[in-house]
Write a structure and sequence with these properties.
Number of domains: 4
Helix content: 25-40%
CATH class of the largest domain: Alpha Beta
Structural class: alpha/beta
Number of helices: 19
Largest sheet: 5 strands, mixed
CATH architecture of the largest domain: 3-Layer(aba) Sandwich
CATH superfamily of the largest domain: Fe-only Hydrogenase (Larger Subunit), Chain L, domain 3
Length: 595
């Protein structure tokens, strides 16, 4: 029902299920807050969003109070401004205000609010405690001295991810955000997804930076430093540099990376196409094993097959559902496939000693830092990927390098490991891996394009937590005649809370699929923990639109039609899932303790 309220003398019609905060925001009235986030439930912890309602004696939290017909609301009275300054001063009295050495300086919500509210001096004596930084995780750094106890991270880990690696412990003045038995982050069930980092308003949670490491290798002339960029980076880097949300900056990004000093600029999309060839073949082998008497295939593992591109999802499965590890595709992620091929195929073709090659990844993901350090990721004889930078870290390097992004010309990635299809681009969005796989697998089986207009498999697109699709196999090619009349059932899940619900249904036999795509982060990689801050449902939708726009603009939109993919199989790997591709491009994962 529509009700009319008055906010700062403006009569505003709004739905009666809206809060005062969201009603004000929808009409361009800014009410400050620190604990509120569009992705999370109401907390009312920070109280900065207090407003004055005529007829009420006390100030009211606008994030928790719903609108009512005839309400007259004030958001910026002397009383409110004085209260906000007091609340901010209390937060600052316990906050480590060493902004000069903080990763979030200039992008800190607390810092911004203190400036906006004119806090030029401390109103209360400092109550800072001597906290030690937790740097145990290869992905995330936790600094309790900068924590304002808004609990966004706790609610993110519980509501969005249902992992619960973080929790509120103790009470009163001793209240803090901690882990199970106060263990280091690396020793608990943290999936390294970084969603907590993306919602932290201060520098209490940040990624483990590899910026200085990358500058160091770039300064060594004897090294050959190559860089790969993930599809979700190109539609978010612009945000980090002040451009519009969801805008593609692919060509400028490539030019900028060359300016930074990388010897070759390659594209992770190339190995995304490779992933489809390997993962699609693995799926077909599993189907062949399930529907024929041939049970001796290399990939003769159970159905449904689970995707393996998201390292946060894989670590989640290792901890929470180790009994499902046999369902996980053995394919490495595109990042790791690229690292292996850079130090074997590329090194051989370029005549470079692989011991002198350093592979740097630009990823939307903090969990990729953990993945790169997995001990099994060294099948080339060297560590597959040496350093991982997030989208945010690349933005920082461009600033440090004095590169004016606006003046850069468009350029293309280097060849050999740079050509890709539109199917690879959509890896950056939830459902993209599934759509890319179906475009190829269906055509391999039937010799025809997937039966959707313009190759757009819309049922697996969008932001719904779990999406399903079915494709009937009719008139397959002779080699696949055993699939005649089979309805291929697939599902897509993003955000680990949705993964838990779906896995429980599969475990109970309530859902039956052949292939399931899982992504740890909301929206998939475009909503990754290393992407620009802030992230909201609206921002993620704009990024998704940018990804699908790039796919539609590509001349080649199917992985199996990428000519460089054909070339690498012809010259080096033989065929998908061959012994050499299994050695270099596949891996296995192991169960981890729940606590």
């Amino acid at each position: 029902m529509i009700v009319n309220v008055t906010i700062d003398s403006q009569i505003i019609p709004c739905n009666d299920d809206q809060t005062i905060l969201t009603a004000a925001q929808s009409h361009g009235i800014k009410i400050p807050t620190l604990c509120f986030h569009e992705d999370l439930g109401i907390a009312g912890n920070c109280r900065l969003c207090l407003v004055e309602i005529e007829g009420e004696k006390r100030l009211q939290p606008s994030c928790a109070l719903k609108v009512k017909e005839g309400m007259i609301i004030h958001t910026n009275t002397d009383r409110i401004r004085k209260t906000r300054r007091q609340l901010l001063s209390l937060l600052l009295s316990e906050h480590n205000g060493d902004c000069l050495h903080c990763d979030r300086s200039g992008h800190c919500e607390l810092q911004s609010l203190a400036t906006q509210n004119g806090l030029e001096e401390e109103l209360y004596p400092p109550l800072k405690k001597d906290y030690r930084e937790d740097i145990s995780s290869p992905s995330i750094k936790k600094d309790d001295s900068k924590c304002i106890r808004c609990q966004r991270c706790v609610r993110t880990c519980h509501i969005i991810q249902d992992v619960n690696a973080l929790a509120v412990t103790h009470r009163g003045a001793d209240l803090k955000i901690s882990t199970f038995l106060d263990k280091p982050l690396h020793n608990v069930i943290c999936t390294n997804c970084g969603q907590c980092v993306n919602r932290c308003p201060t520098g209490a949670l940040t990624e483990q930076s590899a910026v200085e490491d990358v500058w160091h290798v770039l300064s060594r002339p004897e090294l050959h430093v190559v860089v790969q960029t993930a599809p979700a980076v190109r539609i978010a880097l612009g945000e980090q540099l002040g451009y519009s949300q969801g805008g593609r900056v692919t060509g400028k990004m490539v030019s900028a990376l060359r300016r930074l000093g990388f010897d070759k600029v390659f594209d992770t999309n190339f190995t995304a196409d490779m992933t489809i060839m390997e993962e699609g073949t693995e799926l077909l082998n599993r189907l062949k094993s399930a529907f024929t008497d041939n049970h001796n295939l290399i990939d003769a593992k159970p159905l449904p097959q689970f995707s393996s591109c998201s390292p946060g999802w894989i670590k989640y499965l290792e901890h929470q559902y180790p009994g499902f590890l046999g369902h996980l595709s053995t394919c490495k992620s595109p990042q790791q496939m690229f690292g292996t091929l850079a130090k074997t195929y590329y090194a051989d073709r370029a005549g470079i000693d692989p011991s002198l090659i350093r592979v740097v990844s630009i990823m939307p993901c903090t969990a990729k830092k953990f993945e790169a350090q997995r001990p099994e990721m060294c099948d080339s004889g060297y560590r597959d990927v040496d350093f991982v930078l997030t989208t945010r870290e690349l933005g920082k390097m461009l600033d440090q390098g004095g590169i004016d992004f606006s003046t850069l010309e468009q350029s293309s990635c280097d060849s050999l490991l740079g050509t890709h299809s539109g199917a690879a681009v959509i890896f950056g969005a939830t459902g993209g891996v599934m759509e890319a796989a179906l475009r190829t697998v269906y055509e391999i089986v039937t010799g025809r394009e997937v039966p959707y207009p313009r190759l757009d498999i819309t049922p697996v697109r969008g932001m719904e937590g779990v999406k399903e699709a079915e494709i009937l196999i009719e008139n397959p090619l002779p080699d696949w005649s055993f699939l005649e009349g089979i309805t291929l059932k697939v599902a897509v899940s993003h955000g680990l809370s949705h993964a838990r619900k779906l896995l429980d249904k599969i475990q109970k036999g309530e859902k039956d699929y052949h292939f399931v795509e899982f992504m740890a982060c909301p929206g998939g990689c475009l909503g990754g923990g290393g992407q620009p801050i802030p992230t909201t449902p609206e921002i993620r939708l704009k990024r998704m639109e940018g990804i699908y726009d790039e796919d539609r603009s590509m001349a080649i939109r199917k992985s199996h039609e990428n000519p460089e993919v054909h070339r690498i199989y012809q010259d080096f790997l033989g065929e998908p899932c061959s012994p050499i591709s299994h050695k270099l491009l596949h891996t296995e994962y192991t169960a981890r303790e729940l606590y």
